[in-house]
Design brief:
Largest sheet: 2 strands, antiparallel
Subcellular location: Nucleus
Pfam family, one: Myb_DNA-binding
Strand order of the largest sheet: 1-3
Distance between the termini: 62 Å
GO molecular function, one term: DNA binding
Keywords: DNA-binding, Nucleus, Repeat, Transcription, Transcription regulation
Number of helices: 8
Structural class: mainly alpha
Helix content: 25-40%
Length: about 240
DNA sequence: AACAATTGCAACCGCCATGTT
DNA sequence: AAACATGGCGGTTGCAATTGT
């Protein structure tokens, strides 16, 4: 019954990887793949005195081709912040929206920089869901099934720009106008419908209020309206981070 | 220049879901 | 069906680098 333990934790090397170890692991995986079994990989790769889990982590977070390190763009910042507000600290899911970024990188980036940058802006964080459960389906009808008071953006793909979010009241009301891009009408927290959501069917015809502006900016970026989203974001940033 | 404090991030730890025996 | 291994994930730690005094 069962299998042998994955490795002898007392004898395997820990800590930072040397260039030689990196080379050995990279060359082996590029030549043979990981074979679906990380535990036996160190043995198969030769004298790699590392735990299989450590090999997996090193490959996925550092050695794997096409991984981007550092220099997150403003767009990436917003996508991360928005997804964090929507789904909480499900870093692997967030990473799946940012090609080339790893969950570990995003987690570190959030914890060291973005958390401060967006402090006060991300006010309602979704509770952690049970792992490996499918995410709540927000695509069917309106209002979507909101668990707790977490902001929700409709997942892509989507045909019509529509933004759903609760409007936190603790920041009070203020109007955000994006010059030359949108009109001047605004959404106030009074506009909430009974479900706690506000619907914006045609965001290009509105300016936004409070966190709605933040949600709008992130959503617009997701709708590939980069220029507009970036403009909204700049205004939000100027307001919050001055 | 020396030391302390802070920051950034790679890597480890432990938990949980799933797969295997 | 039960017991265990494995893969995957998020939280946390430890240390090197950087910044401040």
């Amino acid at each position: 019954m069962g299998r042998a333990p994955c490795c002898d934790k007392a004898s395997v090397k820990k800590g930072h990887w040397s260039p030689e170890e990196d080379k050995q692991l990279k060359e082996y995986i590029e030549k043979h793949g990981h074979g679906g079994n990380w535990i036996t990989l160190p043995r198969r790769a030769g004298r790699l005195n590392r735990c299989g889990k450590s090999c997996r982590l090193r490959w996925l977070n550092y050695l794997k081709p096409n991984i981007k390190h550092g220099c997150f763009s403003g767009d990436e910042d917003w996508i991360i912040a928005n997804l964090y507000a929507s789904i909480g600290s499900r870093w692997s899911v967030i990473a799946s929206h940012l090609p080339g970024r790893t969950d570990n990188d995003i987690k570190n980036y959030w914890n060291t920089k973005l958390k401060k940058k967006f402090s006060g802006l991300i006010v309602a964080q979704a509770p952690r869901r049970a792992r490996r459960k499918p995410a709540a389906n927000c695509t069917g009808g309106f209002p979507p099934s909101l668990d707790e008071a977490s902001p929700v953006l409709l997942p892509l793909p989507i045909t019509e720009p529509q933004i759903l979010f609760p409007l936190p009241s603790q920041y009070g009301n203020f109007d955000l106008t994006v010059p030359d891009l949108v009109g001047t009408s605004s959404i106030n927290t009074d506009d909430q419908n009974p479900s706690g959501c506000t619907t914006v069917d045609h965001p290009e015809s509105y300016s936004y209020t409070g966190d709605a502006a933040a949600a709008a900016a992130a959503a617009l970026l997701q709708f590939n309206m980069e220029e507009y989203g970036a403009a909204v974001w700049s205004s939000v940033e100027a307001m919050y981070l001055q």
